Amino acid sequence: MRSALDSYVIRGVTHNVNFLRELCDHPRFIAGDINTKFIPDEYPEGFKGHRFSKTPGASRALVAAALTLFARNRTTGRKFFGVT
Question: Considering the entire predicted model, what is its pTM?
Answer without folding.
Answer: 0.54
